[in-house]
Each structure stands twice: as C-alpha cells, then as structure tokens.
Specification:
Subunit structure: Homodimer.
Strand order of the largest sheet: 6-5-4-3-2-1-19
Largest sheet: 7 strands, mixed
Enzyme class: hydrolase
CATH class of the largest domain: Alpha Beta
Helix content: 25-40%
Mean pLDDT: 93
Distance between the termini: 9 Å
Number of helices: 13
CATH architecture of the largest domain: 4-Layer Sandwich
CATH superfamily of the largest domain: Ribonuclease Z/Hydroxyacylglutathione hydrolase-like
Family: Belongs to the metallo-beta-lactamase superfamily. RNA-metabolizing metallo-beta-lactamase-like family. Archaeal RNase J subfamily.
Number of domains: 2
Protein name: Ribonuclease J
Low-confidence stretches: none
Shape: globular
Radius of gyration: 22 Å
Function: An RNase that has 5'-3' exonuclease activity. May be involved in RNA degradation.
CATH topology of the largest domain: Metallo-beta-lactamase, Chain A
Length: about 450
C-alpha cells in the first residue's frame, strides 16, 4: 500500500455536519458524524428524532454520505473526537448504514448513547466502545486508533491519530492549546511531539478561528470573567440570569461555584442542561453541591421559575438555555413573557457564550437582546472565551506535528483561506502539501 485517501464528506464547505473518511487500502475509518445546527432551526433543546436521513441530507443538516457508496472498501470504525452535536449529531441517522463500532471517549460515549436512545426513525445497533485519552484501539492488523488528550469547550475531547502502515493521519477537529484548564488535563504536548517525530502523513485540522490573531485565552480567564461579573457588583440583590452552552461543563462548574460564593442557589434549567450535566455527574467528572437544582421538563422549569419569584430572585441564580436566541428556549420564553419569571428594570442577564456566526442565529440573538432590554434588563454579553484554536495555536500545533500534508476542515472557504495562508508561512504549498477540499471531494496522498 502506497497511498491514503481522504474523503471530505461534510464540514468542508461550512461549520457543522463534520464527517471525514480515511481510506487505507481496502479499509475505511470514518471520523465524526455531525449535524449542522442552523439548518434545522435547531438548538440544544430541539429534537429531530423522527426525521428521515434523506430529508436531513436534502436540508444540508447532516453529511451527504451517499458519496461513500462510490468508495471501494469496508468501513471498519466510526471515531468521534468529542460530544458536540456538530460532531456526533448525525450518528442516529447514519451510523446504522455501516457495520462498524463507534469509538469515542467515555463522556462522548454517554452522549452518543443518549442520542441513539432518543432516535425514533432508525435502529442503531452499532457497538459503542469507550476509549480513554492516551488509549489505543486496534481496528485491523494494520490500523489502530490513538486518542491524544486536548482541551476544547467540552470535557473529554481528543485528537484522533489513525495509525497506518505508511504513517499516521492526525484528525484535529476541535481543539485549543489550554495549558491551565479548569477541568481535565492540559494537552498531551509530549505525545504530539513524539508523533511528529514518528511521522504524520496528513493532518486534518479545524480552521474555525484560524483568522483570529494570537492565542486562544485559557478557560481560567473565562472562569475569572464569570466570577467578576457575578460577584463584582454593589447591586447584589437584583435578579440575575445567566446562559451558556449546556455542554460546557467547565463553564457551568465555574458558574455554580460563583453562585455558592454569592450565597445563591444555582438552578439549571432546560432539557439539554439535564442531559449534559447529568451525564457528567453520573460519570464522576462533575461533583454538584447538594443545593443545586436541575429541571428539564417545561412544567418543572415553570414551577421552579414561579418559586424563584415567590421566594425572591436574590436567593437564586437561574442557569438557562437560550444564548443564541433559539425559539422555544428558556431565555427566549422569559424575554417573551411566557414564563412566571419576569424581568424587571435593573435585572442582569449574562451571556457566557459567543454568538455563533450565522445570519439566522445573529438575527435571533439580536431579537432576544432587544426584548430583554425593552423589559429593562442590563445585558452582559460575551463573558466567554473560545474553545477553538486561534492562529498562533494553529502555528504551534503545525510546527509540533510537522505533517507532510495538511487539510483544513470544519469551516467555510474564508476560514480555510486563513489557515492556508498561515500554512504557507510555515512552508507548505497550496495544491502540493496544503490542500483545499470541498464536500464530496476525495484526496489521495501517495507515499
């Protein structure tokens, strides 16, 4: 065998619906099977469990994996690097087409199982195998999967190395080089350097924030920002509501700790909060104080909000879904006056999240903030740091791993362009050693 094939199935024209296939002789390894959230007007609380895969492919919501029918070979494993929906959200719709195990970290495995159980259209019988960061799984005699610890905005995230007879293919979607994480270990720099010395044939790497200069701030910075906004005030008796990604367990931990310092009871509200936080607690990643409340169903949420109003807003810190202005989410319902919780002049609404850069999301978020301001809310936005590598982190990883070929993924044409410019600075040549792929294209790398 002298060549490796890289199939850009999804996530190469856009952010979301990530899926890549690596062809090694007659064997194929699939990396990620994600959902494109904005295409189904979706957020963390929306369910698409009854929809057909072909309908979702047509909407551009999940990867168009019909290209796989044209690829000779057998899929031997489906590998998922972390638990965000844009990386695992299509598993309930597509995985049953492949007679292959799904390999992922323990927390990701728990989330995948939740997704499979919720699916109503297809029966997904694939084995789901947990593999810890630092572990290796032998797929065939010639191919193994290695998980390398890295940080991102969700716990238990890894880079996946596909080891083949002619060298490794490193899949680096998504990551940040956070040396002072608030949960979990710092990235395994030693292993990455060793892997670079052993020989990396190709690196498939996210390009999401490749256009942002400098280095991504540590999650420790976000923890300090959250604490500063929540505790750094003389108006400590006002109502406060905070919203963040339900999957961002380190951020939620920081918010819960700050609530304790404020003497407020943290109340997690939303189905996705219940799912993500519940899984982290059950696996022992997160220890919750005894006074934390968690409510997922709408009637339980409204009952909790009613009690907060009756007992006094200053006794509680509601932590809610809805930072992107998603229809039906709790913060949107509060802004619309559809819950017992009323926003009064001077109440604080804290967004510990960025706005996802899509026109629909930006419009939804603008409408949400406007409604909150009309009710007199004081808005604190972008109390947040990114989970994606900025340009200098990308530079650092590229120099550390020193792959022969590099392929930007997980982004649109502009993001890929930024990555390619940076790679050219490092000596890579477009069309020769750095490659621009679009969904549905196949690249063969010969050794």
């Amino acid at each position: 065998m002298t060549e490796i094939g890289i199939v850009a199935v999804g996530g190469y024209n856009e952010m979301g619906r990530n899926m890549t296939a690596v062809i090694v002789g007659e064997d194929i390894i699939i990396l990620d099977m994600g959902l494109r959230l904005d295409r189904v007007q979706i957020h963390e609380d929306v369910e698409i469990d009854k929809m057909h895969s072909l309908e979702l492919i047509e909407m551009g919501a999940i990867p168009d994996d019909t290209i796989m029918k044209e690829i000779n070979g057998t899929v031997r494993a489906i590998v998922c690097t972390h638990g965000h929906l844009d990386h695992i959200g299509a598993i309930p719709k597509l995985a049953h087409r492949y007679n292959a195990p799904i390999i992922s970290t323990p927390y990701t495995t728990a989330l995948i199982k939740q997704q499979i159980e919720a699916e109503r259209k297809f029966e997904v019988c694939n084995r789901v195998i947990p593999l810890n960061a630092g572990g290796t799984y032998q797929v065939t005699e010639d191919i193994s999967i290695e998980f390398i610890n890295v940080q991102h905005s969700i716990i238990d995230c890894v880079l996946a190395a596909v080891h083949t007879p002619i060298g490794a293919v490193l899949y680096a979607c998504d990551f940040k080089l956070d040396r002072t994480p608030t949960m979990g270990e710092a990235p395994d720099f030693e292993r990455l350097k060793t892997l670079g010395r052993e020989g990396v044939v190709a690196m498939i790497v996210e390009s999401t924030n490749a256009g942002r200069s400098g280095k991504t701030p540590s999650e420790q910075i976000a923890k300090d920002m959250v604490r500063d906004v929540l505790l750094g005030t003389e108006e400590s008796e006002v109502g406060m509501v905070i919203t963040t990604f339900a999957s961002h367990i380190p951020r939620l931990k920081a918010i819960i700790e700050a609530a304790g310092e404020m003497g407020r009871i943290p109340v997690l509200l939303g189905r996705s909060m219940e799912r993500y936080v519940g899984a982290a607690r059950d696996l022992g990643y997160l220890e919750l104080p005894s006074n934390v409340e968690m409510h997922g169903q709408r009637k339980d949420v409204d009952r909790a909000l009613k009690r907060i109003i009756q007992d006094g807003k200053n006794k509680y810190l509601p932590i809610v879904t809805g930072h992107q202005g998603e229809p039906g989410s709790i913060l949107v319902r509060i802004a619309n006056g559809e819950t017992p919780y009323t926003i009064e002049p001077g109440d604080r609404v804290i967004f510990s999240a960025n706005v996802i850069p899509s026109p629909m999301t930006q419009a939804n978020r603008y409408a949400l903030e406007t409604k909150l301001k009309m009710r007199g809310a004081r808005i604190y936005d972008n109390v947040h740091v990114s989970g994606h590598a900025y340009r200098e982190d990308h530079w650092e990883l590229l120099r550390m791993v020193n792959p022969e070929h590099v392929i930007p993924a997980h982004g649109d044409m502009e993001m890929h362009g930024h990555y390619i410019e940076m790679a050219e600075d490092a000596g890579y040549v477009l069309g020769d050693t750095v490659h621009l792929l679009r969904n549905g294209e196949v690249l063969y790398i010969e050794e």
